[in-house]
Specification:
Elements: H1 2-29, E1 34-40, E2 42-58, E3 61-64, E4 70-75, E5 82-83, E6 88-94, H2 95-107, H3 109-118, E7 122-125, E8 130-135, E9 142-143, E10 150-153, E11 156-163, E12 175-180, E13 188-195, E14 200-202, E15 205-214, E16 226-243, E17 248-249, E18 255-260, E19 266-276, E20 280-285, E21 292-298, H4 323-333
């Protein structure tokens, strides 16, 4: 008998818990899912940009090779050094001079000095003014006319790869902001000075090279650094701005915002929009500085599925056919 009462008590507890959670689910389901925020139209600046990726490159890259075959005797400059046109960068011995000096060195320092004075080394000269970006040899290395001793650049620039759908918006003198992956917190201002005529096809995507000259080349610039470039296609100052999240389309294709109405309810107002950048929008009419605008967002509230337990009130009912019908029929028979 006790066992039977325990079973009945357990069934009642389970049923009661199911009813509670079902009511809680309905309560949560009935909560408001709309979040309304009030913002104020403010004056500010907005710009429309063309985004591109690119890299740091020399404007003119020159490889310096030896005029003759021989051996490097002395290197005067190193990577990062700024040199002028005509400056001596290194000294080398021709193959004949290197052989004579090696033989004289075996006879003693006096003999070696005699031949060093009699047989002068060959200088390596800088062909232009700029910065050494590569030193490719070491002292004592044997070289020939194909060996690159140094590479130098007159100036480092940035080449952006712009999609063909945006290249029509690029113009000479356009301002740009360069951000290196290595230094994301140090943007550099630049100006477009050349748009290349030949495109590059990469996986059926055509891009065109756009060369940008930094206004000030920072000391941390290095050739082949990856860069993200924002090319400023349009820019406006001192205009009325609103978040784009506050702007909605109308059924007629116009743009509108919701403002607080006189009765406290949201009221729509048609506006005209100028520049947009994905975050803010310029309002050219319909809203003025200081106006209050409502930003209405729908919050996601996950729906709770109804329990399939037959112990929960409102759960699935037993079929009218089958055992229940048979019991009813059986009772009538008795």
């Amino acid at each position: 008998m006790k066992k039977k009462w325990f079973i009945i008590l357990g069934v009642l507890l389970v049923a009661g818990g199911g009813v509670y959670y079902a009511l809680q689910g309905r309560s949560h389901h009935g909560r408001s899912q709309t979040n309304i925020q009030t913002v104020e139209a403010k004056l500010g600046s907005i710009q429309e940009t063309v985004e591109a990726t690119g890299e740091v490159l020399p404007l003119n890259r020159v490889e310096i090779k030896p005029p003759i075959a021989g051996r490097i005797e002395r290197l005067i400059v190193d990577e990062g050094d700024r040199v002028r046109a005509g400056q001596i960068l290194a000294w080398m011995s021709s193959t004949d001079r290197a052989s004579i000096l090696d033989a004289a060195r075996a006879k003693g320092p006096d003999e070696e000095k005699k031949w060093q004075d009699a047989y002068k080394p060959t200088p390596i000269i800088a062909p232009l003014s700029g910065v050494i970006i590569l030193r490719n040899v070491v002292v004592g290395q044997t070289v020939d006319a194909t060996t690159v001793i140094y590479a130098m650049s007159d100036k480092l620039i940035v080449k952006a790869d712009v999609d063909e759908t945006d290249i029509g918006r690029i113009r000479m003198g356009m301002e740009a902001v360069i951000t290196l992956d290595s230094y994301p917190d140090k943007p550099i201002n630049g100006t477009v000075f050349q748009v290349l005529y030949e495109g590059v096809n990469t996986s059926n995507v055509i891009t065109y090279g756009v060369k940008i000259e930094p206004k000030d080349v920072p000391p941390f610039f290095r050739s082949q650094m990856t860069a993200n470039i924002s090319l400023i296609a349009n820019k406006k100052e001192n205009v009325v701005l609103l978040p784009e999240a506050a702007i909605q389309p109308t059924q007629t294709g116009e743009r509108q915002v919701m403002v607080p109405g006189p009765d406290g309810k949201p009221a729509s107002r048609v506006i005209q929009v100028g520049l947009e950048n994905g975050d803010q929008a310029e309002i050219t009419s319909g809203i003025t500085e200081g106006d209050k605008v409502l930003v209405i967002r729908k919050r996601y509230a996950p729906q709770q599925a109804a329990s399939n337990s037959p112990l929960v009130m409102g759960g699935p009912k037993p079929s009218s056919q089958g055992g229940g019908g048979n019991r009813s029929g059986g009772g009538g028979g008795r």
